[in-house]
Design a protein that fits this description.
Elements (H helix, E strand, L loop, with lengths): L6 H13 L2 E5 L6 H11 L4 E5 L3 H6 L3 H5 L4 E6 L7 H9 L5 E7 L7 H4 L6 E5 L11 H7 L3 H4 L4 H22 L6 H12 L4 E2 L2 H8 L3 H13 L3 E6 L13 E4 L2 H8 L4 H5 L4 H17 L6 E5 L5 E8 L2 E7 L9 H10 L3 E6 L4 E5 L2 E5 H6 L1
Parallel strand pairs: 1-4, 1-5, 2-3, 3-4, 7-9, 11-12, 12-14
Antiparallel strand pairs: 6-8, 7-8, 9-10, 10-11, 13-14
Helix pairs in contact: 1-2, 7-13, 11-12
Length: 380
């Protein structure tokens, strides 16, 4: 199978080590963190030590981390660190010894989920978030949209193999990964919630409505969403509240971060299935949104959507250097300037407004609005 180097992530890690002695590489399981760590190790000029906390032998060693690590120098890689959150306390002691060493720790939980245990490393750790493949790293937007960006799904020899891999991933995530992160809940209930969520992709998240459908309460529904967000499975997009007289929607929107997993839960197995599915537009919106966010390197605190009670809306707002950039996503070759976009221009006064469509064309549709193909935007 072809191996695709994640050069952007490699460079982010190398820069992180210039800032702090510890780099936390976080992202969903099987997105390529271990492979990228090996690339960092190959380029490192000194000694490299590697520990995998899914290996029982390394788990046993880390019961006394100070004894094992304090005499080591060079690059120390610790994979699946979320299996031993108490290790962060020991890392602070080791870092403060000021010896010639760097720590690269890999985990499948978000910075927020690791926050309590990583607070002891404040000022000593830089987090780098790794995602599945994006358009800058591969050569087929259609395949990336259909199969998603997990390497073993995208690079599979056939659609059938890709589908089988994603089904296995979902099963393992629910039955093994969630318990390993300390969540005690029914895999069947979380699967039902996750599947229900697929039908809400791109819509306002209503915890009470989904909870009622599944026979669970509001708090449980909210808790399940928090779990999926903290394990990088979904993106919660918060609303932008403008200083205008119109009543605005204040609840978050929810998107799957990987289109391949969304398609698996919707029963979409190939591109032809996708083209005939009623969720095609919503699928494209979420897929294109993720590519734009990754291309612009926007953090989640800078990303919003805008919507009013009367139906005016804008799919994505990214704040950058004090400026507001607006994006609308249309699976169309001839998008029009809708009344909703006119209101967005008037009410929000963004610095730029872009309608993202499939392909690589680019042209103005209005003096303040351009149409741009997703490939064109991401690859230039």
């Amino acid at each position: 199978m072809t191996q695709i180097k994640r050069q952007q992530t490699v460079e982010e890690i190398q820069f992180a080590f210039k800032v702090t002695p510890v780099c936390g590489l976080i992202g969903p399981r099987q997105c390529g963190k271990t492979t990228t760590a090996k690339e960092i190790a190959n380029q490192y000029p000194g000694i490299v030590h590697h520990f995998d906390l899914e290996d029982e032998r390394d788990q046993n060693k880390m019961r006394e981390p100070l004894l094992v690590l304090e005499n080591l120098e060079g690059l120390i890689i610790i994979d699946e660190i979320h299996h031993a959150p108490d290790l962060f306390k020991s890392l602070r002691v080791l870092v403060d010894q000021k010896k010639n060493r760097k720590f690269l720790v890999l985990g499948s939980a978000s910075q927020e989920l690791l926050k309590q245990t990583s607070e002891s490393l404040a000022g000593r750790i830089t987090f780098v978030e790794m995602t599945p493949f994006h358009l800058k790293e591969i050569n087929s937007a259609e395949q990336l949209h259909t199969r998603g960006g997990f390497p073993l799904s995208y690079l599979a020899e056939s659609d059938d193999i890709s589908v089988a891999w994603r089904k296995g991933y979902i099963k393992t995530f629910l039955e093994r990964d969630i318990p390993s992160l300390g969540f005690q809940l029914s895999p069947q209930n979380l699967r039902r919630f996750w599947t229900m969520l697929a039908h809400y992709h791109g819509q306002i998240f209503n915890a009470s409505e989904i909870g009622t459908s599944l026979g669970i309460n509001y708090k449980t529904s909210q808790h399940y969403l928090d779990i999926l967000e903290s394990t990088f499975m979904v993106r919660r997009l918060t609303p932008w509240i403008a200083n205008i007289k119109k009543r605005q929607v204040k609840a978050p929107k929810m998107y799957f971060t990987d289109s391949g997993l969304l398609h698996s839960l919707l029963g979409i197995n190939n591109h032809d299935d996708l083209l005939g599915h009623p969720k095609l537009g919503a699928s494209w919106e979420g897929f294109a949104m993720e590519q734009i966010i990754r291309t612009t390197k926007a953090d989640k605190e800078s990303c919003f959507y805008w919507s009013t009670q009367s139906g005016d809306e804008l799919d994505l707002i990214i704040l950058e250097n004090g400026k507001m950039n607006g994006f609308e996503f249309k699976y169309s070759s001839k998008p029009s300037l809708t009344k909703s976009l006119h209101f967005a221009l008037e009410d929000l006064m963004p610095a730029s407004m872009t309608i993202i469509v499939p392909g690589d064309e680019e042209y103005l549709i209005h003096e303040k609005v351009r149409v741009c193909g997703l490939t064109k935007f991401c690859l230039g």
